[in-house]
Write a structure and sequence with these properties.
The chain contains two helices and no strands. It is mainly α. The longest helix is centred in the middle third of the chain and has 79 residues.
Length: about 110
């Protein structure tokens, strides 16, 4: 083999390597672009989850306030009217706690908390 043919073969190999290098760089840029898109999607989803959690917290606080007001009214009625027995109040409170526990369980299961 003469020098000229060796140089030509070497040049062909170099061109293939350069082509492969350019293709790899393009693939890397696509991967980086995909990673940025995924990161942005996750950040947006996290923002939405935070908003949902804040709304759930507000709803739970309202529920607790309403339950407390209802219990207070029941006790006041019991003290003035004497129509409810202590047993009935405890049954009522137990029912409220069971309902509240069910609501919390359903909400946490639904939102994966």
């Amino acid at each position: 083999m003469d020098i000229e043919s060796r140089v030509d073969e070497h040049e062909v190999r170099l061109r293939k390597l350069e082509t492969n290098n350019i293709e790899m760089q393009m693939q890397m840029k696509e991967i980086q672009k995909s990673q940025v898109e995924i990161k942005n999607m996750l950040l947006e989803q996290d923002k939405n989850n935070t908003k949902i959690q804040e709304k759930n917290q507000e709803l739970m606080e309202d529920l607790v306030k309403n339950l407390t007001a209802s219990i207070t009214d029941t006790v006041k009625t019991n003290n003035t009217d004497n129509t409810y027995t202590k047993k009935q109040i405890w049954i009522f409170l137990g029912s409220l706690v069971a309902i509240l526990g069910s609501v919390i369980g359903i909400v946490s299961h639904y939102f994966g908390l």
